Amino acid sequence: MSILDPNWQSDALDPALGFFEETLAIRGGYHRTDEGEHSEAIFATSSYVYASAKDAADHFNGNKKGNVYSRHTNPTVRAFERRLALLEGGERCVATASGMGAILTMCLAYLKAGDHLLCAKQLFGSSVALFDTYFKAFGVAVSYVDCFDTDAWANAIQDNTKICYLESPSNPLAQIADISAIANIAHSKGALLIVDNCFATPAIQKPLSLGADIVIHSASKYIDGQGRVLGGALVGSDELMEKAFGVVRTGGISLSPFNAWVLLKGLETLSIRMKAHCENANRVAEFLQNHPKVQKVHFSGLPSHDSHSVAKRQHTALNNVGGGAITGAFGAIIGFEVADQKSAWQVIDSTRMISITNNLGDAKTTITHPATTTHFRMTPEQRVQAGVNDGLIRLSVGLENVDDIIADLARGLDGL
Predict the structure, then answer these.
(1) pLDDT digits (tens, 9 = 90+) for 296-331
(2) How many angstroms separate the CA atoms of 375 and 394, rounded?
(3) Which residues of 269-308 are buried (b: 16+ CB within 10 A; e: fewer)?
(4) Could you tell me the CA-to-CA distances from 376 to 144, 196, 384 in Å, in that order?
């Protein structure tokens, strides 16, 4: 039976059958109901009805597979989980209420008092706050190294290190880690390598194929793609995801059915959107690099970037799917530096089209000043270590006409 047959029902399209990734993103992971719906259904229910008291008991005690309570079993959420797992090349996905919910789940599932968490310095500010404020208080040791310095990872890992955690590309400088090399370092001590793939998405990079054990997402970003809902996810092996599932089931860090449905719809266009995002970002980065008021551009697509060669090696997914590749898929987050905070705010405030907001991964181009927004809770010393200076601006390049994006940035830069 073809996947185009109206009666096709599948819990997970197998990539081995030869389907291109764009097809999996549209049709994978959903089991059509007896109603024959074409678009995935939203199961807006908190609980489920059973045929008898024994049937209910069998569902709760695990003798019978099925839905129990939407905190941890919901068909719409399950469809999103299956589809994202397919795209990342993982055995299973566990969805959460937000990206930070996914990181919290990571900590609760795989760390305990006395363990060591080794992180990249280049992290989202809320992640640092979670680790330093809460998990240090629970007896977890936390230390930081530069994401791109493999020697630093090797020197900092300890016998009690349980997780090596990084973002690649990182927030907000889009710095690149050598995932395969760091995976080898982590595994030499029996630690997990967990990679936040939010900026690249599986359309550009597949960390599990590079040696990572778990991939984490803020699905609120590119997976949604239009800034509508919150969501998060972890993807990995069945064994590791069962531990994450236990945390979500017990702790209630759950993705809502409606948000799962929106994210399913986002996955349908992920690949084509990421191609367009990357094409625009390449043009914008070249403009910024050549502007006399821009002191530095942080974008791995530029040949001058320190990690350009590593990014070229790792960011290959768009070149291996149907529908045509693009030249240079390096994501669409650009950090660029001007003289100081006053200059940065002037550039931001001079825009007339670009949205001044902390969100990213949107069809709309967004701009923010990390030192006073996304990373303001970090200490000044931590911001220096992460490369977040007062003149840094983070740009998430959207899908508008690229000449309009460039013209909007030029309004502020030309006036400096």
Answers:
(1) 999 999 998 888 999 999 997 665 444 444 456 899
(2) 11
(3) bbbebbbbbbbbbbebbebbbebebbebbbbbbbeebebb
(4) 18, 21, 12
Place of tokens 């955690």: 165
Give the architecture (CATH level 2) of 271-413. Answer: Alpha-Beta Complex (3.90)
CA atoms of 405 and 189, how far apart (whole Å): 46
Chain centre distance of CA 327 = 22
DSSP assignment, residue 121? S
pLDDT, mean of residues 59-85: 93
Can you give the pLDDT at residue 369? Answer: 96
- Tell me: the pLDDT tens digits for 122-139? 988 899 999 999 999 999
User: What angle is formed at CA 121 by the lines to CA 116 and CA 127, rounded to 5 degrees?
Assistant: 70
CB 292 within 8 A of CB 47: no
Closest CA to 388 of 344, 354, 326, 324: 344
pLDDT exceeds 90 at position 250: yes
Q: Where do you find CATH 3.90.1150.10 in the chain?
A: 271-413
The Cα–Cα gap between 368 and 393 comes to: 6
Task: Report the 10 Å Cβ neighbour count for 86.
Answer: 24
Beta pairing, strands 214-218 & 192-196: parallel
Cis amide prior to 303 (ω within 30 degrees): no
CATH 3.40.640.10 fits 15-268, yes or no: yes
Other Cβ atoms closer than 10 A to 327: 9
The verdict on whether omega for the bond into residue 169 sits within 30 degrees of 0, i.e. cis, is yes
Residues of the chain with CATH 3.40.640.10: 15-268
Q: Are 182 and 162 in contact (CB under 8 A)?
A: no
